[in-house]
Fold:
Amino acid sequence: MSCEPTEVPPAEDIDIPAIREKYRQERDKRLRRDGQKQYAQPVDDLADNYAGDPHMPVEPRDALSEEIDVAVLGAGFSGILAGVQLRKAGISNFRTIDHAGDFGGVWYWNRYPGIQCDNDAYCYLPLLEEMGHMPAKKFDDGPDIFDYCRKIATRFGLYENALFHTMVSSLRWDDDIKRWRISTDRGDEIRARFVIMANGLLNIPKLPEIPGIHDFKGSMFHTARWDYDYTGGDWRNPVLDKLADKRVALVGTGATAIQAVPYLGRYAKQFYLLQRTPSTVDKRYNTPTDPAWVESLQPGWQKARQDNFHRAAMERFLPGDSDLVCDFWTELSRNLAAELEAEGWPELTPEEYMARRELMDYRVMERLRRRVESIVEDRDTAEALKPWYRFLCKRPLSNEDYYETFNRPNVELIDVSASQGIEAMTEKGFIAHGVEYDIDCMIFASGFEVTSDLDRRWGIEVIEGRDGLSIYDDWANGYKTLHGMMSHGFPNQFYVGYYQGGLYATTTEQYNRQNQHIAYIIKEALERGATHVEPSLDAQNQWLSHLRETAIDNSDFVRECTPSYFNNEGEKQVDGEGHETYRFYLGEPYGPGWVAFQQLLQDWRDKGDLDGLVLEFTGR
Structure:
């Protein structure tokens, strides 16, 4: 694919005020008073489906009672990279604990047909140069990513002390022994000096709260627990031949659905896609890895590519930049950079630049809507599939076969935006627009607990720090951390993910750098003989003040977006100061940016005094 600017409609061909009003109307009709409560955790007859593991049998074992230095909670990429960085810091007395049967996290659980990473694999897969690994193509397949997770875990000896098929039920800090008491569903009592919360974003499935969902007599499952015994095939060979005589419905049109829909349309006797909000779906251009390109790469190529992607996706291209990633994620920056270059790179204020970017946003979205028209033959279906919102209001996607699927005679799109979802389920199927549709199988591509309440996201019943302080209570009105990785009142506990700190376009590299910082603190505490370490309240408050003083206000953008997990289904919150806020799934990013945040952390480490942290020692 030649990395040239895409052909987008000229600005004078677009009625932006009319489109902005259309965006508002489409958003408003999808807003629900119940917000995040429209999704439920699996209960009753559905609970076993999601608590169990369809991929590997649970092996019986004796309960453990032991003391360790570090417990890493989570075996996805954030947990894997925690283990890698602990090993590099010379720390070996740790366990990785996860309710899955192996390493992989989202790439372990999700085995639906067509699963691929929708980010450039040369950026997304961590440690490529160190591992001597190269993805087979630009957007790597799920099975290959899972295999790579296991490859890293093997290389760094993470299997040695891993506890799989183990769900943590409670974490309690015991000030008498200066350790975290970890209880699990296997009866374990583990006393860990340090705990790294590496439990990820995409690990707890959620279901739509549909009246009558438990009345349905057919097959029913979430895409994160795909039932190949029912559909036929397997994730490495998704020939769903058992659906040839089945009527199948799928709820959801996000990243998972876009990849699974072509397979369901191809194999099912009748397939219904139930859509509330359409996604943007561009052409994928999933090219095989070019051996000549691989041979041309110089040491440090992955970091250079990741930084280039970050500027394109999260910030802006600079004069002299070329788009190394060149896909739908980088289109806005690529197009705008070409225009600015043609103008001689004029000096623009941040406000002027954002205005230009917003205009390009409208033009790109109009291109994507016209793409729907060019492929989908039925006019009503095409209209329903058009996305009416700003580019990053929903995760941008790509697929070669998604829109073409709706030209099949056995495929029907049922748009439920006006009714804000399915009206009900019955013994035989579902009701939409007052009509009952008989089906044999209902599949939910309804996502995960990404921006819901913290206890639902983490799935741990009790987390109590000093003096029984619940983190769920302490963070009820917003995160309270130092650098996004530690919190006052919760000694020796660390957080990996989107909280309060530097935000990087390549998620796995963000996790890697967070774990590098965490491993440094743990190593220093152990070498200094500290029993525990935590931020002082003053240091934490100073960080929160600095974070908010330097924050970029994106509340208008988040508020105006169509409801999705990106903005907590459009649900308003009230922060500790009484201000209305909208929870953004990326937490509270550091306003000055990723580079500034990494320099801040490096300067902090170089000082060597663990500034802002309180260390306690035995006998003091």
About this structure: The mean pLDDT is 91. The chain has two domains: 1-60+207-285+327-444, 65-204+450-550+590-617. The longest strand covers residues 65-73.
